[in-house]
Design a protein that fits this description.
The complex is a heterodimer of chains A (115) and B (113). By secondary structure, chain A is mainly β. Chain A contains no helices and 12 strands. Classes of the chains: A mainly beta (115), B mainly beta (113). Chains A and B meet through strand 5, strand 6 and strand 11 of A and strand 4, strand 5 and strand 9 of B.
Chain lengths: 115, 113
Amino acid sequence: AQSVSQHNHHVILSEAASLELGCNYSYGGTVNLFWYVQYPGQHLQLLLKYFSGDPLVKGIKGFEAEFIKSKFSFNLRKPSVQWSDTAEYFCAVNEGRSSASKIIFGSGTRLSIRP
Amino acid sequence: NAGVTQTPKFRVLKTGQSMTLLCAQDMNHEYMYWYRQDPGMGLRLIHYSVGEGTTAKGEVPDGYNVSRLKKQNFLLGLESAAPSQTSVYFCASSPPGLSHGYTFGSGTRLTVV
C-alpha cells in the first residue's frame, strides 16, 4: 500500500528564513504528487502538484517542490517565508493509474513563523 | 460559486447516538470522498464514491456508512457514535484524473462524549 512520510512534525522559523519540508512516499510506480496547505481554522487548499514533465514545480505564494524519483521524494521549498505562511502543510500522493483517484495524505507538518 | 458545502459545521453527540453528515457539491464532479483529520495523523480516507449509486471503503471505514443517491450529494452516517469518532471530517470532490486535485469542504467538527 502507498504511504507518505513527513518527518518534520513541527517547524519553527523566523520571517525571511528559507524553508524546506521533507516528503517521501513508498509507491514505486507512476505517481501524482501534491502539496496542500491548511491555514488555521480553514480547509485544505492545493499549493502545487506534479503529474509529469519538469520535476521542479512552482505553485502559489512562492512555493515550489522538486520531484526526485530516485529518492521517492517531493520536498517543498520557499526561499523566504512570511508570517502569513503559518499553517499546516500536507504532502499527498496518488497512484497514477488509480481509477478512483484516491489521494493518500501524510501526517502533516505544522509551520510556525515568528514575526 | 459554492464548491463543496458540508453541514453541519459543528456537532456534539452522546455515545450511541446516530447522525448523518451531508456533503454537497455543485461542480458536477464524478468522484467524492470522506476523510477524517486527527492531530498527528493527517487525513485518512473513510469512504469514497466514483459515481452516483457507487461507494467503496477507504483506509478507516469501520463505524461509518455512506450513500450517494444523487451525483451532487455524498452522505456519511454514524449509526452508533463512539468517542473514538471525535474528529474533524472533510468532504472532497474531484473530476476523474485529478487535474486540479481535490476541492475540499470547510469541515465538520464532531465531538462524541
